[in-house]
Structure prediction request, 105 residues.
Amino acid sequence: MSQLALIIKTKCQPGKRDEVRRLWDEYLKPRALTNTDQEVIVYSYDLQDENTFYLFEIYSSQQAFEASSKAPWFWDYMKAAGAMLDGQPEVMMANPVFTKGVITS
Prediction:
């Protein structure tokens, strides 16, 4: 099975980025730390736009990503954070073919 890489760009309402991050830490970070199918996750703040953040994730497979995206705790996070977002996140999917400093299968 091929791994799946996600690049997610999320814009927040002005001044809400840190609050959204706190919700991510509460709802999603504990799951990411224990989910062996979520092999890599990088949460980054945009340096030019104080209301934008990015997630880079590598899942062991498309099926592993789909299972996470359907989990009730993911939707609990989206319900809590939704009003603080500025539109829908941009989600790009890719097949990783080279990484450095990252263990991949």
Q: What stands out?
A: The first strand starts at residue 4 and ends at 11.
